[in-house]
Write a structure and sequence with these properties.
The protein has 117 residues and is an all-alpha fold. It folds into 2 domains: 45 residues, no CATH class; 47 residues, no CATH class. It is built from 6 helices and no strands. The longest helix has 37 residues.
Amino acid sequence: MSDKEDMVFPAKWAKKLREEDKSALESMSDDELKRKVVEFVTGISYVEQEMDSDPDLLQMKENLKICSKEYKDQIGELTAGLKYAAFTLSGRGVIVDVKGAKEAAAKKSKDEDGEDE
């Protein structure tokens, strides 16, 4: 089997692509496809510029920063404590499974939420 036969278009993008657009692209020559690539890149750039200059979106981003600052600060402090505790244990020769601890904490939190029902 060749590399071409092994190629699979990612599902993430396939679900956003209309069948008629897929067919149209497949029927284009290499030169037409290259021009289409330039059109797509230009279109993406234009939309991103529009998004970056949208006053409503900019205000929402600023509001999000303001509203989430306290939470992010708390998460930063807790993360610093977690990392220092793991660092200290590691310095003492203790192996620390931070990922496993996070999963256990999430399970504990989920179990506690289920008790209230």
